[in-house]
Amino acid sequence: MPPLRKIGLLLLVFVAVPVGVVAFAELAALGENERVLREIYDRHVETVLSGINQHVWTVANEWADDLGRRLADGADADAALAEFVAAHPSVEAAFVADTAAALQALAASPEAVRRAARGGVPSVERALALRPTHARRLLADRTAGYRRLLPIPLYAEHPNATVALAFVTGSGNDLRVAGFVLDAWTCIESELTPKLREVAKEHFVVGIAVDDEVRYAEAPATAGVPLSDGFGGPPTTAAAHLLGGPDVQERALWVFPNATLRIRPAGTTIGSIVADRTQRSLLLVGLLALALAVGAAFLFRTIRRQVELGQAKAVFVQNVSHELRTPLALIRMYAETLELGRVPEARQRDYVRTIAQEAGRLTRLVNNILNFSRIESGRKEVAAAPFDLNALAADALALYRFHLDSEGFAVDSALAEPPPVALGDREATSEALLNLIDNAVKYSEAERHLTVATGTDDGAVWVEVQDRGPGIALREQKRIFDEFYRVPTGAVHNAKGTGLGLALVKHLAEAQGGRVTVRSAPGHGSTFRLALPAAPVPHAVPALPTA
Predict the structure, then answer these.
(1) How many Å apart are CA 164 and CA 181, to the nearest integer?
(2) pLDDT digits (tens, 9 = 90+) for 202-218
(3) Which of 181, 178, 39, 53 is nearest to 123 (CA)?
């Protein structure tokens, strides 16, 4: 497996494993947190509901004490019962019976009497289902040392008074069974509503449902939930909806078996808290994964760059060795031939010219390496002075003329008139242009044709070198100016080179405030343009008037 692929797989593992572990641990912690939160919430709700039930039961016991005192203090049981009913609007009727559950006296509220008189509703006396078994249970509790309030359901035909509470009163041999029938909604309105409102202030929505239908609801003012217009009326759709969701806790009312208490948080629910925490945790895990992925990608890119740079440097050493050997071998061969005197006098000049040409080529190669090193270390300085770009192009072609002629190149020049004047370093620009010409010669194999042109364009001057070589693919054009980079495939790759020429051209151009660009396509050659700032045009000095 290639080293880069191994490194990529290792980085992928280093990213995926921590993210997976963190995500698993975070989700496990969220599940445990949800369980703990729900347990705490359930215990709190249980305490609240128990408090409501205990409140009602305490009130009922207080009323039982009041009825027992009235029966003990008064000689007339009917009068004591009537006074008790009149004193407690939530009581529909009160009764007293013997220990065999036989009624001795009963007093009903005026409303209960009127309701029975209208027909269709049995009287309290007929609806009361007090039986001897109830009396025996109450007496057994009394013998055990405590008083029980025993709920006794009324007959189903009696819709409003839902329950009777019976207890044993008296002492010694004068024991009796007493009790009272509660008007359910009146009792809830007068005794339970204040408690429900107190609970609602703790950010709860509470209500009472009868036969699975919400009949009453209370919510804190901050909840913004409109409730019913009055007690006993149907609650609004919003209130009923709030008391019908999955977060609602429900408990039976002790005193009213056919009614249930419902409660839920008024604001954020347990489910929404957990969902919000899950969303935030997943977001954090996602950000962690993204950060690790970006870091891994950056690290992989850096490693790949270093590997490619190492490979490029190895290729550079090989190419430089080849580039150095070729001119050195020619110089040595021609010099030895001249030394041995085997060259006719007519050709000695050609041999000397070749030696000088290869020596110049060798010098340019060494200069490229040295200049690139100076640029990389920041020690390469360029001057800024006006110079003729046409003259520079002509000098470069003259310097390269022998090599171009020996390689069989046809050379065209298209120099602009008037000559463009550049503002920069003439020596640095000449070095860059020679690199472009050398690059064109090196990569032109099939069609040996070279064009050097100059011109002006939008405040800048330029010189360009055009060849008819194999061309460069678009995806490679952005990288050919990188140091040590050479096109990896195709005809362009076949030519030897150091990979520094175009990088040096780019550095020299940018150091002078210019730039180098390329236009190329596979099979259509390449055109490299070196653009530099134009020198300012000197203002003409007006002639002084003659006397």
Answers:
(1) 4
(2) 677 787 877 777 777 77
(3) 181
